[in-house]
Amino acid sequence: MDFDALLAADARIEPRDRMPDGYRRTLIRQIAQHAHSEIIGMQPEGDWITRAPSLRRKAILLAKVQDEAGHGLYLYSAAETLGVDRADLLDLLHSGRQRYSSIFNYPALGWADVGTIGWLVDGAAIVNQVPICRCSYGPYARAMVRICKEESFHQRQGFELLLTLAHGTAGQRAMAQDAVDRWWWPSLMMFGPPDEESPNTAQSMAWGIKRHSNDELRQRFVDMTVPQAEVLGLTLPDRDLSFDGEHWRYGEIDWAEFRAVLRGDGPCNAERIARRRAAHDDGAWVREAADAYAAKGVA
Ligand code: BYC
Q1: CA quadruple 195, 201, 206, 209: dihedral positive or negative?
Q2: Ligand 1 contacts CB of residue 113 (under 6 A)
């Protein structure tokens, strides 16, 4: 079947199928950005591994951060099925020519941020990513199935951590509330610009890469999260939140802040990229050793 017939039948496009150049380019852009987000996303929580308050929390956090590295690897592999090389994609990330999610340019200032990232950031990621399990491109859709299972576990551990703090001492409760106050709005920005300012959505939906628009998914996330905040006993920092009988309506998002973060002017952009480049340079010997083994046919 040709490309349009496969799309019309809601079948999957596979690497050897003919596909329009624009479809290939869009997938490479989105999958690479997604992979970069996973590995840059290790940094805010990774900062807290050595300061986890118990062995149990440390083991959970280590496993979560390691899972994010794994997600990056599945996604770089999915991108490579489109004819690109992960080394080139990493060069594009390191030189600022490919993006990663805006959310990881915010700092994790306290232990409660670890729980809040799990609850809100992984929560938003799940809402965005579950529909990608039905993406028209097979390798991306399949990678997303396992990623979503793991993200779902991450979200629950974040919720459980916050629930513990919210029912702890007054200081712990205040710490939890402060973290939620700081992460709420940036989490809503993860879904991308409003639909009327999203240049890629219409074509990506026509190609079955995106199944819902940015605003639809953002609304789904708010509807899911408001009742969870009530269970936690924490408030969301939006005085305009109100239920209209069907949806939770939310206040105005500061899109100027979003655009600033995308331009590179967020609180941690420079730090995140510098650390990523340093980690890449520090790992050069591993790549050289792996190449040497592969060249000898040992690998
Ligand atoms: N941040 O036309 P639009 C995770 C860019 S990792 C930065 O709506 P599109 C996790 C967009 O790229 C979560 N840039 O774009 C990891 C475009 O610019 P370019 C990452 C953004 O692609 C560790 C321009 O704005 N998830 O889960 O149709 C720990 C116009 O936007 C953002 C994914 O990557 C943003 N927030 O839709 C915990 C999911 N939003 O490229 C958790 C896969 C927009 O034309 N990606 N831009 O220069 C997607 O679903 C879509 O790419 C987006 C954007 C919804 C993000």
Answers
A1: negative
A2: no
pTM reported for the whole predicted model? 0.96
CA angle 100, 105, 111 (to 5 degrees): 125
DSSP per residue, 220-255: HHHHHHHHHHHHHT---S-TT-EE-SSSEE-----H
Give the phi and the psi of residue 13 in degrees, each rounded to 5: -85, 130
CA distance linking residue 126 with residue 8, whole number of Å: 26
Look-up of token digits 């080394």: 87
Ligand 1 neighbour 101 (Cβ under 6 A) = yes
Task: Assess whether the C-beta atom of 67 lies below 6 angstroms from ligand 1.
Answer: no
What distance in Å separates the CA atoms of residue 244 and residue 258, rounded to the nearest whole number? 27
Which atom of ligand 1 is closest in space to residue 210's alpha carbon? 50
Structure confidence by residue, pLDDT tens digits, 136-163: 999 999 999 999 999 999 999 999 999 9
Residues 252, 230: Cα–Cα separation, whole Å? 21
170-184 residue pLDDT tens: 999 999 999 999 999
Q: Ligand 1 in contact with 99 (CB < 6 A)?
A: yes
- For the chain, where are the alpha helices, taking DSSP H only? 3-8, 21-40, 42-46, 55-80, 86-94, 111-116, 122-129, 138-166, 170-189, 201-206, 214-232, 255-263, 269-282, 284-296
Q: What is the distance in A from the centroid of ligand 1 to the CA of 5?
A: 28
Cα 92 from Cα 187, distance rounded (Å): 25
